[in-house]
Write a structure and sequence with these properties.
It contains 12 helices and 11 strands. It is an alpha/beta fold. It folds into 2 domains: 3-198, Rossmann fold, CATH 3.40.50.620; 229-329, no CATH class.
């Protein structure tokens, strides 16, 4: 029996591609890739979805593969450029294809399948970029895209008769009606709504990440997790993050490290502020001022704040920050400096 490795996000397109191959008698082993940037099967912001229920229902195996530091490196230094934000989409896809190629060799698979649809995404799913990425991954001719295959050059498994080209599809564009019709035909009812992509496609998150990499070119996983929480403020030699609700307060306390400074207003309705870096006394005062600005004490001329650092808690009084200071220090999307654009593919 012929065997394929599938790149499976758990979304509609990739799941359909697996089902189309199963319908042709191909044994499919799927791999779902995880990163630190929202591509998680349990993450609401993710373009991925938990594939396990459909795997059990339709009878195929799924392996999880965390790209970890390999992915962080391409985020910092993408070879093929970025999209509009911090998303290194082509590098990401090439990395996934290379990892899938390794799995293909380990299990003796004949080819790779993906759920890519011609013209659906502007950076990676164009007619010229699909074969370019295959070549960069050392997989030219071995990547089959079942949903758009009849619009593309025949692959090796098609030419060798392993896959019947006539039973593949010619879907293109950003609409989902053809896929939804195919899902109904194949009995697929459990699939997520379309997602915009990973966190690296979001402008505000990308701006925060860019600022983090400028301050610290070697961020930890903990640093990356903090990017998703609260309001961020750049101080002289430190970063302040202020929670927006109880869930974020709890998250900040959970992510706090031994060297961090925690701040809160000395009242019930208070956010948690986390100060990380090498704060001087002026930074701590500004951080306390900003933290109490978002508390129930915001209208007071002077407000008490609790500063906890190194197991010691001190009570100080500060004036709640004014709007000018908030705007001057807040990390938010701005013009910034340009990032490398797309590269020409050959």
């Amino acid at each position: 029996m012929a065997r394929a490795v599938a790149l499976l996000s758990g979304g509609l397109d990739s799941t359909l591609s697996v089902l189309v191959m199963l319908g042709q008698g191909i044994d499919v082993t799927a791999v779902t890739f995880l990163t630190h940037f929202g591509c998680e099967i349990t993450d609401r912001s993710s373009c991925s979805s938990d594939p396990s229920s459909n795997a059990r229902r339709f009878g195929f195996d799924v392996k999880l593969c965390h790209l970890a530091d390999k992915f962080i490196e391409i985020v910092k230094n993408p070879k093929y450029g970025r999209g509009r934000n911090m998303n290194p989409c082509m590098d990401c896809r090439v990395l996934m294809l290379r990892e899938a190629k390794e799995l293909m060799g380990l299990i003796g698979a004949d080819f790779i399948i993906t759920g890519e649809v011609l013209g659906q995404r502007p950076m990676t799913q164009r007619r010229e970029t699909l074969p370019f990425m295959d070549r960069q991954a050392g997989l030219e001719g071995y990547v089959l895209r079942p949903l758009s295959a009849r619009l593309l050059k025949p692959t090796i498994p098609e030419l060798e008769g392993i896959v019947e080209r006539e039973r593949l599809y010619a879907i293109s564009g950003r609409g989902r009606k053809p896929q939804m019709a195919l899902a109904k035909e194949l009995g697929l009812t459990d699939y997520p709504a379309p997602a915009g992509g990973c966190l690296l496609t979001e402008p505000n998150y990308s701006y925060r990440l860019r600022e983090l990499l400028r301050r610290n070119p070697e961020p930890t996983v903990n640093d990356l997790h903090l990017l998703r929480v609260g309001r961020h403020f750049n101080l002289t030699d430190a970063l302040l993050i202020v929670g927006r609700d109880k869930a974020e307060n709890d998250r900040l306390e959970a992510l706090a490290l031994d060297g961090d400074c925690l701040l809160r207003a000395d009242c019930i309705g208070t956010p948690i502020g986390l100060l990380r870096g090498n704060p001087q006394e002026e930074d701590i005062l500004k951080a306390a001022s900003i933290t109490v600005r978002y508390s129930d004490l915001r209208e007071m001329p002077l407000a008490p704040a609790i500063v906890t650092h190194g197991g010691r808690a001190d009570r100080i009084e500060v004036a709640p920050a004014g709007e000018g200071l908030i705007e001057a220090l807040r990390v938010q999307k701005g013009a910034g400096r340009p990032w490398p654009g797309r590269v020409r593919v050959r």
